[in-house]
Specification:
eight-stranded mixed beta sheet; alpha+beta; BirA Bifunctional Protein, domain 2; globular; 19 helices; Rossmann fold; 16 strands; RNA-binding; 460 residues
RNA sequence: GUGAUUGUAGCUCAGUUGGUUAGAGCGCCAGAUUGUGGCUCUGGAGGUCGCGGGUUCGAGUCCCGUCUUUCACCCCA
């Protein structure tokens, strides 16, 4: 087949899809800016050395690597002539083939940005970033190889006001999108405290990975997973007491704090959660559900404090449409110690899928000309073109049908493109110094003046 | 990366145990209607059956490979 195709997991976007995506981006952007975040952008590609080792072994496998340019292949062949496979494996041969990669998320490039521009930025630095990221994953429902993340992070502030405001940002964005979501909140210190409580600090990761699956594989599944992970019955019993805690958010945290008594890290995690809840209680009530959820773990290993996850409370997509958290020493990996960061991310493509499925895109997400002027050719054509210019001069988006085609064809064009008004200027109208305006939705049409048309449409 | 699954007209899909010239609906184009879209009627165009190989007298149909789609696992937005 000579038909062109797209790489696996990538998509084209037509005019309507772009309009709807812009609606999502604009909603998120306006809330970010409302909270004082400023935009930055970074390149789609980073040095591989910036990216590798930041996302765990699984993450490294999902990095897209960019083949080096030039005739390096021949050079490399010469360079390694006569060397054995064992010698090759001992060297960093990969970097000879690829030294650049596509970014995997926006957080690591942001950390790199902060380090490189540390003398130019004002701390605490609040930035947002809306750009595509790339993962060499197998595509499936809600999972793409190229997708947009919308991140807001603040670096250089330990204050829990940041954590508090991120809850509000999530709440506000989804409220503006008319979407019901559940904002889940936990704290890594609580999870670490739990691991210490059962004397399994070194297995903290295995522990969190297992209990993170609770809502997916159920209590029995988690038990299985924990048993396989080498946890004892009594350890598992303690773990289960944790995720069986119930009551309102405050009660749950207080109960957890009691269970973690004497484990200072765990107590601190609970105190942080309580502080965020307190701060929120003195603000306007949230529109969406906020749930303290001790089973929330999140994969990225660099989280150290509060962690967030957002799932839609409507539609069928079960995976998260947003997530984030606090990471102490984010920039440490790039040599600048002691800078703490906290941030959140919106998964724009998954949000799109949910809004699409629930039919909640507003009509205004459509865009295009409001008025089509029909083209009769000759002097009529000139008159229509002048009218179009008048409309544009008055900020009314308008277009002239580019040739004197059959009227039915021109009307069908307006119909197909959902242009709501058609302006008709023919010989009769020119003689009467008037125009005919047809409303494509109602089918009504009236003879009027161009000035009146402009007056009418400027009201919108 | 593991395990399934899909591919036939622009779109959604039929296509019998392998058997003439591969069909339908929608869409598209033209006409009925030379100043009016949606509704109706009439006619028309449009296919290397994902791609490559194999079996067979004969393959859309069976076999192998490959790409692609979708889904689950892993992991994640």
């Amino acid at each position: 087949m000579s038909q062109p195709t797209l790489p696996k997991g990538t998509r084209d976007f037509g005019p309507q899809e772009v309009a709807r995506r812009n609606y999502i981006f604009n909603t998120i952007r306006s809330v970010f800016e409302l909270y004082g975040y400023q935009p930055i952008e970074t390149p789609v590609m980073e040095n591989l050395s910036t990216l590798t080792g930041k996302y765990g072994d699984e993450g490294d496998k999902l990095l897209f690597r960019i083949l080096n340019s030039g005739d390096f292949l021949d050079e490399t062949k010469k360079k390694f002539r006569g060397t054995t496979v064992e010698q090759l494996e001992a060297k960093d041969t990969a970097s000879l083939l690829a030294e650049k990669g596509l970014r995997y998320d926006l957080t690591v490039p942001f950390a790199r940005f902060v380090v490189m521009h540390r003398n130019d930025i004002v701390l605490p630095f609040k930035r947002y970033q809306i750009q595509p990221v790339f993962r060499a994953d197998r595509p499936q429902k809600g999972r793409y190889r190229e997708f947009f993340q919308c991140d807001a992070d603040v670096v250089g502030s330990d204050s829990l006001w940041n954590e508090t405001e991120f809850v509000q940002i999530y709440d506000t964005v989804f409220y503006r999108m008319n979407l019901q979501v559940i904002i889940r909140l936990n704290n890594r210190k609580v999870l670490n405290g739990l691991a210490q409580l059962i004397a399994a600090a070194e297995k903290a990761t295995a522990l969190t990975v297992a209990i993170d699956k609770l809502d997916k594989i159920g209590i029995q599944g988690v038990r299985q997973e924990l048993i396989q992970g080498g946890f004892s019955e009594s350890q598992i019993h303690t773990i289960e007491r944790f995720f069986k805690l119930h009551g309102d958010n405050r009660t749950k945290v207080l109960q957890a704090r009691e269970l973690l008594q004497g484990i200072s890290e765990g107590e601190k995690g609970c105190d942080e959660l309580l502080e965020v809840l307190d701060k929120l209680s003195s603000a306007m009530p949230l529109h969406n559900k906020l749930e303290i959820d001790f089973t929330l773990a999140r994969g990225l290993s660099y989280y150290t404090g509060c962690i967030y996850e957002v799932v839609a409370d409507e539609g069928t997509l079960k995976s998260s449409i947003g997530g984030g958290g606090r990471y102490d020493d984010l920039t440490g990996i790039f040599g600048v110690k002691g800078l703490s960061g906290v941030g959140i991310s919106f998964g724009a493509d998954r949000i799109y899928d949910v809004i699409e499925e629930t039919g909640k895109f507003p009509e205004s997400a459509l865009q295009g000309a409001r008025v089509l002027a029909v083209n009769f050719g000759g002097e009529d054509e000139t008159a229509a073109w002048q009218a179009v210019q008048q409309l544009r001069h008055n900020k009314i988006s308008a277009e002239l049908y580019p040739q004197a085609a059959k009227l039915a064809k021109q009307f069908k064009y307006a119909d197909d493109k959902k242009i709501p008004y058609v302006l008709i200027i023919g010989e009769a109208e020119r003689n009467a110094k008037s125009v005919t305006l047809k409303n494509m939705q109602t089918g009504d049409q009236e003879k009027t003046t161009l000035a009146h048309v402009i007056h009418l449409h400027n009201k919108y």
